[in-house]
Amino acid sequence: IICNMLRLIHRNTTKKRPSKHLISNNKYIFSQNRFFTLDQNFLASMKLKQVPFGFNGFGEFVYRRTYSREKPNGQNEQWWESVQRVVEGTFRMQKQWIQNNVAPWDEAKAQHSAQEMFERIFYMKFLPPGRGLWAMGSPITEERKLYAALNNCAFVSTKSDKDPSKPYAFLMHASMLGVGVGFDTKGSGVTMVYKPSDTEMTYVVPDTREGWVESLKLLLDSYFKSGPTIKFNYDSIRKKGEPVRGFGGIASGAKPLIVLHGELRSILDNNVGSTLSITSIVDIMNLIGKCVISGNIRRTAEIAFGSPNSEEYINLKNYEKNPQRMEYGWTSNNSVYAELGMDYSGIVPSVIKNGEPGFAWLDNMQAYSRMGDKPDWKDIKASGGNPCLEQTLESYELCCLVETFPDNHDDLEDYKKTLKYAFLYAKTVTLGHTHWEESNKVMLRNRRIGTSMSGIAQFINSRGIDELKNWCNEGFNTIQMYDKMYSDWLMIPKSIKTTSIKPSGTVSLLAGATPGMHYPISEYYIRRIRLAKDSALIEPVLKSGYKVESCVMSPDSTVIVEFPVHSGENIKKQDDVTLWEQLLLASFLQEHWADNQVSCTVTFDPEKEGKDIESALNYFQYKLKGISFLPKVNNNYPQLPYEAISKEQYQEMIKTIKPVSYSQTRTGTPIAEKYCDNNVCEV
After folding, report:
1. Which of 153, 388, 399, 400 is catalytic?
2. Distances (CA, A) of 96 to 14, 121, 227, 448, 494
3. Nearest 10 degrees: CA dihedral of 619, 623, 624, 629?
4. Which end of the chain has fewer CB atoms < 10 Å from its terminal CB, N or C?
5. What is the pLDDT of residues 229-264, one digit of tens each?
6. What pLDDT is recorded for position 56?
7. Measuring CA to CA, how many Å separate 264 from each of 216, 224, 267, 274, 400?
8. Coil, strand or helix: which one is 378?
9. Residues in Cβ contact with 292 at an 8 Å cutoff, skipping those fewer than 6 apart
């Protein structure tokens, strides 16, 4: 029997047959080969090309540190290999989707498109988000099918009558995957807190993300559903210092989870017999964020949304009134659901003092796509946004971003072609299901995408605002055309919204672009990066002449590398852009480009411009969906991340710098990109 089976298998696998067959009804059926690879001759030619990393080698350094994955042979990827992984992973997702739905797949056409996508990523005309550049095509998506790791951000409402612990568990799980999460405080006055029963139950916490999340849910359920008193056994959790595979980094041990359990018990004990307060909701979410940061992920992003009429909420970051929150209140940005026509005078003093709260106009988020168009109420079900407020979101919704660099293009037609492949990447990501039923239910319907622009300040500087208006409008219309085309091909709904302006971070550094719509600190500046003292990247940058010195805050474990940066000839610096000009640019992009939102953190001089904030909010509340503010402060501490320098200082620094050779450098598995890697919205 076995011999006959082997002969049959051999006969079936060696029989020559075309990849497509015509059957009696003249429709194509598909080949069972679900693997997709780029042509080897094409790859051989591309790996010899020069990579246009930005900012005098700083872009390549960021790539080596953050995105160059370790290969099976122990070496790290070169840029062309990272792009190959991303593109092949993207087209495998498409191919499997098409074949699962018994639709025709054109291998030759796919090969042509994949090569075009490869070149546009390789030359940094567009880039996947940091999460996609790090995870797409890796074992995370290919083997473990963790497609949630490709998404940047999420939102969840705490108003849950059926399962009140689920929003908190969702935030923890998403945060541990590096997804930034927004949440509201609508569970206040709704979620009842009970004393756990006298029955005891022991839960042995597995050494997995799911195990940590389940421990949180069990603890919350014991209070929200009067369940058994939970005791935890932490013996199975790996010890501190052991490596973490997959997402990279070093294990923290059980301590962050033990601390979280203790802190939550204390909060919930104080709420027994009443409903959760606004403070308790934000405290629980913030403490989860602190645990995630301590537990290897190191960074997370949260945003809280509350009522502008709640003094309790507004004062959450007033540490004179709430000194206990100083230890964890920093883990979220706090914004209010601003109401059109409201009186802003009571909130503005807090904004002038510490930059918070931010403002989210939910009426505008629900009613409008681009603010220059008529209301369409596409997002009537939306209830919040992501931590940087570039995406309108429903509860449990995740979204994918993709970043384009208009100033890296010769003309508008070239940019339109880039938009075709950038949008195709993002649309493909929407094919991947998450492991949360509630998220899939929303995402499969909305297919929300945020196609973003970076280097906007450079584009305005080189081509002018009128040209930007033209590219925005033409580009937006181009994306709508491709959304219809790809949605029809993939047999899925059109995306509810398609464009945004994200704040960016490390991805724009690769391309030598200013982040999002923001202006640089100076035309010339020093960018300082922290590295572990044993990092394999130190030796090559030292040999090339970059300055490396011990970190004054942690000299035994950390060094600082200095990179001189030129951000663009005669470009405006941050201090020369007024509060009003920043708001005007944000509203301009919300009118002509973003049908989701524009992430804008307005920097302002508290003494000179603080008095203008109330008037600015009154005017711009009808033109924006969200905005945040950041007062400028004089930082005099040593080794600042950014330091403005003169042209002469810059030229003197680059005299001694040579191109860096990373050919023999092995950095191991990079630590996963967490959300947007931007200091404004990430903690």
Report:
1. 388
2. 23, 23, 43, 21, 20
3. -30
4. N
5. 999 999 999 988 777 765 566 778 899 999 999 999
6. 86
7. 9, 12, 5, 16, 32
8. coil
9. 172, 175, 176, 300
388: annotated active-site residue? yes
CB count, 10 Å around CB of 624? 25
Neighbours of 420 (CB within 10 A): 19
> Quick check: 309 pLDDT over 70?
yes
Task: Pick 364 or 663 by higher pLDDT.
Answer: 364
Average pLDDT, the chain: 90
DSSP for 613-650, please give it.
HHHHHHHHTTT-SEEEEEE-----SSS-SEEE--HHHH
Token code pair at residue 407: 């100033």
Q: Which of 302, 390, 609, 682 is catalytic?
A: 390
Catalytic status, residue 472: no
426-437 in b/e burial notation, b at 16+ Cβ within 10 A? bbbbbbbebebe
Task: Give the model's pLDDT for residue 674.
Answer: 44
- Phi, psi dihedral angles at 626 (to 5 degrees): -165, 155
H or E element, residue 280: helix 278-292
Helix, strand, coil percentages in the chain from 3-state DSSP, rounded to 5: 40, 15, 45
Residue position matching structure tokens 């949360």: 436
Rg of the chain on CA atoms, in Å: 26
CA 74 to chain centroid, in Å, comes to: 28
Q: Identify the three-state secondary structure at position 452.
A: strand
One-character DSSP codes across 195-238: PPEEEEEEEE--SSHHHHHHHHHHHHHHHHS--EEEEEE-TTSP
